[in-house]
Amino acid sequence: MGSVRARAAAGATVVVAVALVAAGTAVLLVLRSNLQGQAGLQAEVAAREVAAQIATGTAYGKLDLPDGDDHPVVVLDDDGRVLAAGDEVRAVDGRAVAPPPRGTVTPPDDDGGDDDDDASGPRPGEVDDDAHYRDGTANVDGKVADYRFASLEAKDTNGAKATVRAGSALAPERSTVGTVRTAMLIGLPLLLLVVAGVTWLVTRRALRPVEGIRGEMAAITASTDLSRRVPVPAAQDEIGRLARTTNETLAALESSVERQRRFVADASHELRSPIASLRTQLEVGVAHPELLDVPGAVEDTVRLQRLAADLLLLARLDAGERPAPARVDLAALVREESSQRAGDRVAVRAGELAGVEVAGSRGQLGRVLGNLLDNAQRHAASVVRVAVVREGEWVVLRVDDDGPGVPEEERERIFERFVRLDDARARDDGGAGLGLAIARDVAVRHGGSLAVREGSAFELRLPVAT
């Protein structure tokens, strides 16, 4: 069953079939039990009518017995002898019934009057309250059938005890149960066909939007046009949410692909300039060795090396590389980096340096600090300030300078790749616009953030190592 519709229809049919079979079985059992109880009640009523006659002193030969076809009745003494029986009753449970002739009075036993003191059974002139039931057979006018028998004990006025057995035919009960069972056997397959058909139609209608989504995704895959979107059904259900999530995924994928395209184009552009400059210098050096600008060639080579390192780090970050699970002291990192910039044009002054550790890669976090200090020194007039403070469960690294600051409308744009403001281009021809982008990506990978708070103050927030 490769189709969801087929599996859903089959599953629903099986579940309904099991439920119907269980319910039908329970109904039949309850119906049979009720009908048997009703037959037993009818048999008890017939037996009590006869027992009441015996208790009032009616002679056994003069008992008014019901019609044998409806309720076969036999009256037995303690020894099992038949005292009375219906006219058409021939046998009960295979035992022949031979009652005394009508009008004959069967005298009680000599000691029958002593039964007054018998603790069990009814007293003279009474009928036992409790009836006993069991199923059996009776031959009535030559026809053997199944009956529900009720047995009652009664004593006449002389204290002679007799047992009255009256039956009620089970044929109506069995006929009713059989009719209901036949109706169920006929109706169950028809109902299952209806369930399967309705489930098939409902599932097909419910899955129609899914087929539309699948078809559109196949078309997008074939055309590689990520600007297309799958149809969103009007229903606010799981399929509608699936379509919206799919469109959000396509939008994110389109944005990622577009960002990668711009990244490749910008990287190619940034690489072209130093490579062309280096090639020109080398060609001039080959033709005129005395004109070779060795410092310029070294500068272009270093620029290429840095750009390649930046591109490689960005590629690793985009690939989801997780930082190493090391513990890094940001204050020690700041002291080490500041000492290496002691002779720079713009001095780096360290403020409060709280000794708090964070979890991550020392190399990547050192790269973030270096990029922030490079950016601050590039724009500062005379001084760069750096501090490390703890704010609750966060470590905050602040880098500030006395430069003109970042315009508010540009505070997010500067973190995009290969973005350089005009002022940055004028001050530094070597920057590729990757430093701040790398710094933010590393901060995010370490579970933190990087933002410009006010003016030219950059704030790196990282969780405290636990």
Q: For the largest beta sheet, what order do the strands appear in spatially?
A: 2-1-7-6-5-3-4
Tally of helical segments: 8
Average pLDDT: 84
Ends apart, CA distance between termini: 52 Å
Q: Tell me the number of structural domains.
A: 3
| Radius of gyration from the alpha-carbon trace, in angstroms | 52 Å
Number of strands: 14
Order of helices and strands: HEEEEEEEHHHEHEEHEEHHEE
In terms of DSSP E residues, the strand content is 15-25%
Helix proportion: 40-55%
Structural overview:
The radius of gyration is 52 Å and the shape is rod-shaped. The strands form 3 sheets. The chain has a 7-stranded antiparallel sheet with strand order 2-1-7-6-5-3-4. Helix 1 (4-55) runs antiparallel to helix 2 (171-223) and helix 4 packs parallel to helix 8 (435-445). Mean pLDDT is 84; it is low at 110-117 and 423-430. The chain has 466 residues and is an alpha+beta fold. The chain is 48% helix and 19% strand.
